[in-house]
Amino acid sequence: MKLTPVGIDIAKAVFQVHYVDSATGEIVNKPIKRAKFLEHFANREPCLIGMEACGGAHHWARQLTKMGHKVRLIPAQFAKAFNIRNKNDSADARAIWLAVQQPGKPVAIKTEAQQAVLALHRMRQQLVKFRTMQINSLGGLLTEYGEVMAKGRAALDKAIPAVLAKVAERLPAVLIDTLREQWNGLAKLDGQIAEIERRLRQWMKEDKSVNAIAEIPGVGVLIATAAVATVGDAKTFKSGREFAACIGIVPKQSGSGGKVNLLSISKRGDTYLRTLLIHGARSVLYHAKDPSPWVEQITKRRPANVVIVALANKMARMIWAILAHDRSYKKDYVSVKSAATVATT
């Protein structure tokens, strides 16, 4: 059965819908209010519905899927390529309608539980960012009065009591009290971050997939929970390399005439998960007591940053393999394909 393609530009209040009526050939491009959106598709025959993977898209994708429609969430940059004129709701819906008919890799529709875990990660990321801003702000303000402290939280906690006592002799009490309150507020942020991490660890204990990939060296509670929630269904990716490319830790390509040059990593996809993987790889490289032979060999040939990114790439592939094939981590595991390749050579 051929599904009718439909492009939807979602918004907070008014959605724009674009499709071609299969019976009359009429081009339909009209706005639909939020309250009437699901009602519009309730009694229709199954459609191929395309939406940008943005805020609220996963919720509407789940609702439309329950009605029997096939939904594809399209990365915004791919849909944008089909909008060649002015940007407005009508043009965006038409661009999505064109994009959904093209072959490509859609974004996996996440469950509410997976979105909940990612929400915890986003809130933790925001708190960490705000804590860093507070630390830098305190250091910068005290520098205005000739008190320079070393960088970092540990240096701030060690030096600021004496610094505040010293500048209190010549600065207004209202400023000293405010600076002290801001410093004490860092402990509250620490507590909020720790509580979110505790909840993530609790979810980790209850999820089999998270426990499986947490056995990989360099993968802790943050990477494990973020990876499982971000990937959704690992089988939507054909290979580990495709998953690594999705999060932007494979080389960019540039070339023509059959000659392709490999450049730095593409940095496409999920920035947060890519950052976590690189930090995890760095911890393995610098702190592992028994690094693998692969790490030792590549360390002799490449600079440290290149080794870190290569190890992050390998970690991403191992995460995909464990999730896609539902197996546990084995340190000395050799794939069947690799063994066959060695045998033939």
Automatic annotation (TrEMBL):
Domain Transposase IS110-like N-terminal: 6-145
A GO BP entry: DNA transposition
Transposase IS116/IS110/IS902 C-terminal domain location: 212-289
Residues passing through the membrane, by range: none
Molecular function as annotated in GO: DNA binding; transposase activity
Protein name per UniProt: Transposase
